[in-house]
Every structure is written in C-alpha cells, then in structure tokens.
Specification:
The protein folds into two domains: 264 residues, 3-Layer(aba) Sandwich (Aminopeptidase); 197 residues, 2-Layer Sandwich (Alpha-Beta Plaits). The chain is built from eleven helices and 24 strands. It is α+β, with helices and mostly antiparallel strands and 470 residues long. The radius of gyration is 25 Å and the shape is elongated. The longest helix has 19 residues. Helix content is 31%, strand content 27%.
C-alpha cells in the first residue's frame, strides 16, 4: 500500500493549525498554588491535559486520565505497545515578547507561543499523525499510545507516576528534541559539595560575608555577587582591582562601596549545563578574582577550591574524573549554584553529565575522596542513568528509513548531553521536531514553530507510527 503522507496532512492543514493554536492558547504553566485533587499541578496544565484527552475521544481514541498527573490516548490492537511520549506543560513565558505568549499569533509562516516548539506544537503533530492513520482505516497489529506528561519541565512526577500504574511500551519515541534521531543520552547527576565549617579559622584583613551565584544546577550562572567587609581604604583598593579585572577580561559588572562594606557584582553568560563552555560562569569568575584577596582562612579555602578544580575546566580533568566514549562524548561538569556565608561556610551545586559507558560509581568515589581531602562533604547525589538504544534496533532502523524517505536526507544518529522523555522508555529515542539547521527557540521569548515544519513533522510521525505498528 502506497500512501502519500504529506498529501494526507495537507488535506487537514487548516484544521491542524486551528487545533494547534487553540492548544497553545492554554497557559499550561506549573501552578501549585491553584492545585486541587483533580488538577495536582494547577489549572492551566489540567486544562491542557483535558483538551487533548477530549480531542482524542472525539476522534474515537481510547482516552485515560491518570490522576491528573498524566494521561494517554490509544488506538490499534495487539500485545505490543508503541509509545509516543509528549508533554503539555510549558516553562513560564518571561518578558519581552512581541505578541502575547499565549495568543498563538501567526506571522511570516510561524506560530508564536510559549510551547510552540516545546512541546505542544509537536504533540499536536503526533496527535494528527494518529488521527490520519485512524481516518484512513489502516490495520494495526500493535497498539499505539500517546502518553501525555504534565511535569516534564520540572520534576518528571508525571512519568514516574504513570509508569507506576500503567504499562511500559515495547518501544517508542518522544517528539521533543531534534531530527533526525537522538539514540543516546548522557547520564545526569546533580550533587552538592558542602564545606565543613571550621570554628578555628584564621581571620584576615578582609572578611567574605557572602558569595552567591546561580539558581539551577542545569544552567551556567549569568550573575554573581559577593559582599566583603574591611576598612574603607582597603575597600577602595579592592574596587579598583575589581574594575581592572572586569576590563582585562572583557566582563561586565559593578562595585558598590559602602561604609566598611563593598558589594561586587559580575555578569556572565548563561548556557545549558550540557555544554558549559557555551557560557561564562559568573560565579567561578568572581571566585577567581577573590583568590587574589587576603581573606579569612575559611573563605580562602572555599574560593581557592572553586578556582583550582572548576575554573576553566568543564571536562572534569582537574577533578580527576575526565572520561569520554564514542557514543556520547565527554563528561561535562557545570557549577550551577554557589553560596557562601561567614556563619555556615560554602556550598557548591554541581550538574555532572556522563557518557553511557562511564562507571558513575567509580566517579562518585573519586569525588568523595577529593571532597574529604579538601574539607568538603558530598551530599544529595541524584543520578538519572544514561540512555542508549542500539543502532541496529528495529526502532532506530525504521525511523531512519522513514526520515530518509520523507526528507530525502540522510538520517544521522545523534547523541546529546540533555535528557528527554525518551529515557523513561526501555527502548525509546527522541525524534524531532527540530529539523537540522533550524534555530532552537525553546524556552526563549518569541518561541515559534514554522508551519511548514509542523506539517512535515506530522507526515514523518504518521508514516513512522504506521511502520512501527502495522
């Protein structure tokens, strides 16, 4: 049977665009203040989940709401289950949009809205792929289930809850990353190094009252601030040295000198923790400046530890944990959160991403030993294991063939340092929606999806689902 999948999509183009706009107009941001038993993550997320479930029921799909934390839409028959993992929650819109972030305006062939590319636009593409297969009456020997998450942008409570109560698919994909195919994802660890406070530390001319930078483990801090206490003459000297440090390193920042106290602020460049070198870590840069100041011994130990083991090295070489493999590349280390105060000492929040063949337990032992030797304790070690599907797996081979047939381009296999819903499946890959060469505007102001790409992705998903389930 020969099916022109793009032609089938184009027959439904206007309806697909209307549904996508209506879906995007729901402000599905986590809001636990408005949470209820029926809507545990807030009204907006629940509205988006209900919209999709009701839309699926209208098309004759089997709909199920799993305690307001997840849901699914199912069609087909058979023992095996093909999963399509999507999510309806979005990050907060932020400021600076050209149009209202939930208006879903169309301009220059693009739909602008928070969630347009991550992940409500692609979710609607996958939904229409299922709708097309059902309307064509194509026989399926496996069940197809769209699994709908509600907490992907935060804590993944949705998939955790879902798979405690529902069946694990035989295989599947998440339309929530890049085309062609992401078949491997690094392991992701968050942990803290907490300084052991010494009550016998040696005082000095300058007291480090506080140092802080960053809010999230998985982001490079773009802002840092420290407060120093000393006599006024010394503070004026520190201010001048700081301004020279900024100028010589082409950095932005400022010094505010008060009576016996000065506040130094430094701007960096934010980036995702999966590639820290794309940013400038404001916290590490400010710590580097502070190593040249005569601080009390406790503060001195903290800033020198930061500078020695993290500054200028995102690959864990200084820590003794560098590792790389051919599947997913290098270990990466990001200092995402820094805090220090004179009473409780310092704390370093670290995001570590490790290759699929890396022995993370051995890495942890090295870190614990180094921490102990340096006056720190390793705490709160949370590990999301790496994910890898063999390149010869039927899932990978099928999606490669479909992508090449639909686009005429080679379906290269990709690996990433980020984490997608695909890792919650035993055999899952990330598959689109971002085509090669397109800018990634997820989480940015004026987020959009190109309508032609939405249509092309729908055709790819339709053929992929059919080929996997027929």
């Amino acid at each position: 049977m020969s099916i022109n999948w793009m032609q089938e999509v184009l027959k439904r183009k206007d309806e697909l665009i209307r549904d996508t706009q209506e879906f995007l107009q729901i402000p599905s941001v986590l809001d636990e203040e408005s949470a209820t038993e029926e809507a545990p993550l807030g009204k907006g997320i629940n509205d988006a989940l209900q919209f999709l479930l009701k839309r699926g029921e209208k098309e004759g799909l089997i709909a199920k709401n799993v305690n307001g934390l997840a849901g699914h839409l199912e069609m087909g028959q058979g023992e095996q289950l093909i999963g399509i993992l999507c999510h309806v929650d979005v990050v907060p819109p932020g400021d600076g949009w050209t149009s209202d972030p939930f208006s879903a305006d169309i301009r220059d062939g693009k739909i602008y809205a928070r969630g347009a590319i991550d992940d409500k636009g692609p979710t609607m593409a996958a939904f229409y792929a299922m709708k097309i297969i059902k309307e064509l009456g194509l026989p399926l020997n496996k069940r197809v289930r769209m699994i709908i998450g509600t907490d992907e942008e935060s804590d993944w409570r949705c998939v955790d809850h879902y798979f405690q109560h529902e069946e694990m698919p035989t295989m599947g994909f998440a339309p929530d990353a890049d085309f062609p195919i992401i078949y491997a994802e690094k392991g992701i660890v968050d942990f803290d190094l907490k300084q052991e406070v010494s009550h016998s530390h040696v005082e000095a001319e300058v007291k480090l009252q506080s140092l802080k930078a960053g809010r999230r483990y998985n982001m490079v801090p773009d802002w840092a601030e420290t407060v120093l206490q000393a006599d006024n003459g010394l503070l004026v000297d520190i201010e001048q040295r700081f301004l020279h440090f900024l100028a010589s390193n082409h950095l932005k920042g400022k010094a505010v000198v008060g009576e016996g106290v000065t506040t130094l602020q430094l701007e960096g460049i934010s980036a995702h923790a999966m590639e820290p070198d794309q940013g400038k870590n404001a916290g590490l840069l400010l710590a580097n400046f502070l190593t040249g100041i005569s601080l009390d011994s406790q503060a001195q130990l903290f800033v020198h530890f930061l500078d020695r083991y993290f500054n200028g090295d995102s690959r864990g070489k200084k820590l003794g944990i560098a590792y790389s493999d051919e599947i997913t590349g290098d270990v990466t280390v990001n200092v995402g959160i820094l805090s220090y105060n004179a009473e409780s000492g310092g704390k370093i929040g670290i995001n570590l991403r490790y290759p699929v063949t890396c022995d993370i337990e051995e890495t942890k032992k090295i870190l614990e030993q180094l921490a102990q030797q340096s006056g720190f304790i390793l705490e709160s070690f949370s590990d999301s294991k790496p994910h890898h599907v063999d390149r010869n797996h039927m899932l990978v081979q099928t999606l490669q063939r479909v992508y090449e047939e639909q686009t005429g381009e080679r379906a290269e296999l990709l690996s990433i340092g980020g984490g997608t819903y695909a890792r919650s499946l035993e055999a899952g890959v990330a598959f689109g929606p971002l085509f090669p060469g397109r800018p990634d505007v997820a989480h940015q102001k004026d987020e959009y999806i190109i309508i032609d790409d939405l249509l092309k992705a729908t055709a790819i998903y339709a053929q992929a689902i059919y080929e996997l389930a027929k």
